[in-house]
């Protein structure tokens, strides 16, 4: 038996990536249907698991353009010792897709990290 010690190079699965972006778009449009018209539009959704309150998901429209919107998504009232999770999402209305363009102030993401996600 021969063991391949070289790691296989990471390849993006475009079909899976596009499906995730399309699903994200559909979910965001359900939460903020007016995002195309109103800069500053907001939505807050309570997060819970049974009787346990986990926090609040806050969505805020930062920018709108003819074909795109930019939304800040953050979780409020989470665990006191945990930094507030925050990300910036770009919504492409013409393509009906949404992708994360920034998280925790980071703008560049690698395809693979040394430690498993």
Quaternary:
single chain
Shape: globular
Strand content: 35-45%
Kindly provide the radius of gyration, computed on alpha-carbon positions and rounded to a whole number of angstroms: 18 Å
Q: What distance lies between the first and last C-alpha atoms, to the nearest angstrom?
A: 30 Å
Largest sheet: 5 strands, antiparallel
Give the averaged pLDDT, no decimals: 83
Unreliable residue runs: none
Q: What does this protein structure show overall?
A:
The longest helix has 18 residues, at 14-31. With 117 residues, this protein is an alpha+beta fold. The mean pLDDT is 83. 15% of the residues lie in helices and 38% in strands. It has a 5-stranded antiparallel sheet with strand order 1-2-3-4-5, with helices on one face.
Give the gist of this structure.
This protein has 117 residues and is of the alpha+beta class. 15% of the residues lie in helices and 38% in strands.
């Amino acid at each position: 038996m021969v063991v391949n010690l070289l790691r296989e190079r990471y390849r993006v699965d475009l079909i899976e990536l596009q499906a995730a972006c399309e699903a994200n778009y559909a979910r965001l449009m359900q939460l903020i249907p007016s995002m195309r018209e109103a800069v500053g539009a907001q939505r807050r959704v309570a997060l819970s698991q049974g009787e346990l309150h986990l926090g609040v998901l806050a969505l805020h429209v930062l920018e709108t353009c003819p074909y795109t919107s930019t939304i800040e998504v953050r979780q409020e009232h989470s665990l006191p010792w945990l930094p507030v999770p925050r990300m910036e999402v770009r919504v492409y209305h013409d393509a009906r897709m949404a992708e994360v363009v920034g998280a925790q102030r980071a703008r560049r993401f690698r395809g693979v990290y040394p430690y498993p996600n």
